[in-house]
Design brief:
This protein is α/β, with parallel strands linked by helices. The strands form 2 sheets. A two-stranded parallel sheet has the order 1-2. Strands 3-4 form a two-stranded parallel ribbon. The chain is built from 5 helices and 4 strands; from the N terminus they run βαβαβαβαα.
């Protein structure tokens, strides 16, 4: 999962993929301009929903470039535009969504809860796909549909 700061959406998505995928998928996340820390509200929403957050931390995309990935998903428009060279992947998809880290004050928790629900819905749909049976074009179409 790629996002510009790698502090909220992509961290939530990485944790959800690890938790819901239960070893079925290998998940990682990175950012084009990583923040200094995972947003505390991202950690809070994961805790409220019982999703482990161990090992999470902002990382630069450079650390992912040496690997081949089956799927790379961007979760913000800025990351999609700021990553002219995505890590090598069989399939790339975009699941753009509002950045809950931009919300402050009384609406912050609700913004993170909405981001969590959106990502959970998308990841649950992703995990129902028969990944080993789909060719890259069909997988790309399925991921685009999930993200729309």
């Amino acid at each position: 999962m790629l996002c510009t700061a790698n502090s909220a959406r992509s961290q939530i998505a990485e944790a959800l993929l690890r938790h819901c995928g239960a070893g079925r998928v290998e998940a990682g996340s990175a950012g084009a301009a990583p923040a200094g820390r995972v947003h505390p509200a991202a950690l809070g929403v994961l805790e409220r929903h019982g999703v482990p957050a161990e090992g999470l931390g902002p990382k630069a995309t450079g650390g992912l470039l040496g690997r081949e990935w089956d799927v790379v998903i961007t979760v913000c428009d800025r990351a999609r535009d700021a990553c002219p060279v995505l890590p090598r992947a069989t399939v790339s998809a975009h699941w753009g969504m509002p950045d809950p880290a931009r919300v402050t004050g009384p609406g912050e928790a609700a913004a993170f809860d909405e981001a969590f629900r959106t990502l959970r819905r998308r990841i649950d749909a992703f995990l129902t796909l028969r990944l080993g049976e789909l060719d890259p074009a069909a997988l790309g179409e399925a991921l685009a549909e999930i993200g729309s």
